[in-house]
């Protein structure tokens, strides 16, 4: 098996995008009056998608 090096630049970018998404979602949540369950559902979905995108970089 070949060792896979972790791309720290890509991980840092994904973390930055996650914070940017959370900030934007918080602004949208106030305007649309999302409840806490809707906000949690959107954030969990976003985290699953980001992890799926990140794991695709190892193929």
TrEMBL record:
Give the superkingdom in one word: Bacteria
Q: Which UniProt keywords apply?
A: Cell projection, Cilium, Flagellum, Membrane, Transmembrane, Transmembrane helix
Residue ranges of the TM segments: 6-25, 37-55
| Protein name from the UniProt record | Flagellar biogenesis protein FliO
Please give the organism: Sphaerisporangium rubeum
The taxonomic lineage of its organism, from the top, reads: Bacteria, Bacillati, Actinomycetota, Actinomycetes, Streptosporangiales
